[in-house]
Specification:
By secondary structure, the protein is an all-alpha fold. The chain has 10 helices and 2 strands, in the order βααααααααααβ.
Amino acid sequence: MRSTPRIELERVHGWIGAASATSILALWFMSLAMLLTSTWDSKLLLFAPLAILAQTFLHTGLFINAHDAMHGTLCHTSPRINNALGALSVFCYALFSFEEMREHHHAHHAHPASEDDPDYCDEPREGPLKWYASFLARYVTWWQLLGMALVFNLLQHGLGIEPLSLVVFWVIPSLLSTVQLFFFGTYLPHLPGDDSDQEHHARSLEWPVWLSFFACYHFGYHLEHHRYPYVPWWLLPRARELDDTSNAPLDATTSR
């Protein structure tokens, strides 16, 4: 009998996930601090578009950290570290509550593409703009907006950061990050169609690994994520590879 493929998690993802999350947090903070304290000149002006893309990618990484923490896979060996890194990441992302986001995300997994799915749009075929607006309305609160405005003013008036730098290197990347997460992690994978898996109402984007990573930390391999939510983002390409070569479900030393 053919053996079931296995993704070994016990040995590695206790420290790889935590190390990856810490690295993303550190890179995001250090690069943002450097950019916010840089003097505007011709070199920074030329560098700004690339810096915006890099900050957007790192900002998205904050949510990916929190997402894996919601599944308990960020640091499997220590739930306390797992939840602490997840809470810090989602707070830095947009002052979100980790507990509330985790509750919403598990509802998404339990009821994908239904009226009980907080990530889904009632009229998904009407286009991405309406779905995106619905997506934001379900998650962004007035308290968050007030909190972000308070942080903006504290950085400007308390630390003397130029408003232009705050807008270009913090506000714009954070907004672009919501578009990135929505488009590659919700809209394309969950848009109804004949190629959508009927159980999970999801599909995976047929992209090479390098493009999948830069698009949204492999969030585009979305069917694999719904089938095997215990698999952290950096192992989704491996899950996809094994899933394509086996008729049996993937097994793991840990499941959630």
